[in-house]
Amino acid sequence: MKKNLFLFSLLLIFSVACTPITKSDNISLYAELDYQTMIKKVKTPEEVAWYLQNYLHYQNDNVRRSFKYVHKRKCGICAEYAFSAAALLSDNNYPPLILHVLLGNSPDNIQVTHALYVYQDNVTRRWGSLGQQRENILPKFKTLKEMCLYFNDQKFYSQKIVAYKLHNISRFNFIDGEDKEIYKFWSSGKKIILANTEKNLNN
């Protein structure tokens, strides 16, 4: 009896790992799948959005961990949501692009920073985003500036986006690296001031 139950459990886990994410999925079974299996299971941005919305929950502890740790803990901050999206699509020809936005009253008075994963549709080349629930948007933006202005218009955040950076984190081990390694990219890249006339500033 115990042997049959064990075999049934293995079969159930295997079937979950080999089928795409759907709304009928038993989310609790994801905890029994390791991070590598989840990466193989997820194929599309829509499936990533489902995973982020239903499996993870937000927990602000100011630590940026790679996907291996986020999947195990089932929680994370905005950057960890972004790393998770990048990891889940890493074997599906989507580059690991993180949009780092700065929120405040002016570019010189930054109050808060925020991160989300962004990607381009392979056909239309329009931008979409993945992150916390409201940020899971199918590709419809011609530029990242247009995306940021949309977020401001819809009042996504308590303060407006005043500047943004785009990071390709392919040189960092965001899938199963250690905490300290993925801190490095935040201070790099060009900051784009969000105004009527864009201006590039080197950090």
Task: Provide structural commentary.
The chain is of the alpha+beta class and about 200 residues long. It has one domain: C8orf32 fold (Roll), CATH 3.10.620. It is built from six helices and nine strands; from the N terminus they run αααβαβαββββαβββ. The chain has helices at about 1-20, 35-40, 45-55, 65-75, 80-90, 145-155, and strands at about 55-60, 75, 95-105, 110-120, 125-130, 135-140, 160-170, 190-195, 200. The strands form two sheets. The chain has a seven-stranded antiparallel sheet, sandwiched between helices. Strand 5 (about 125-130) and strand 6 (about 135-140) form a beta hairpin. Helix 3 (about 45-55) packs antiparallel against helix 5 (about 80-90). The longest helix is centred in the first third of the chain and has 17 residues, at about 1-20. Residues about 1-20 and about 195-203 have low confidence and may be disordered.
What's the SSE blueprint?
Elements: H1 2-18, H2 35-41, H3 45-54, E1 57-58, H4 67-73, E2 75-76, H5 78-88, E3 97-106, E4 109-120, E5 127-130, E6 137-141, H6 144-153, E7 161-168, E8 190-193, E9 199-202
Parallel strand pairs: 1-2
Antiparallel strand pairs: 3-4, 3-7, 4-5, 5-6, 7-8, 8-9
